[in-house]
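Below is a complete specimen:
___
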Amino acid sequence: MPHSLRAQLRGLRYKRILEEKDYKRLCKALDNENVLEQIRAEIADLDDAEYEFEGYYKAVNDALQIIDKYKGE
């Protein structure tokens, strides 16, 4: 998460505009924002030619496994 955004959130928390639990939840959500980009990149790297022969269901299965891998982190 960019430092300036974290600093703004911290300022709102200091001024008691934002509660501590909301501050932590926002920071955690913003820190995990790039997880979707990692998932998308890994799915895009899958070999398309392999799926022409083995079918759509293998592609969906592999995509779900990638999502589950990042969901566990």
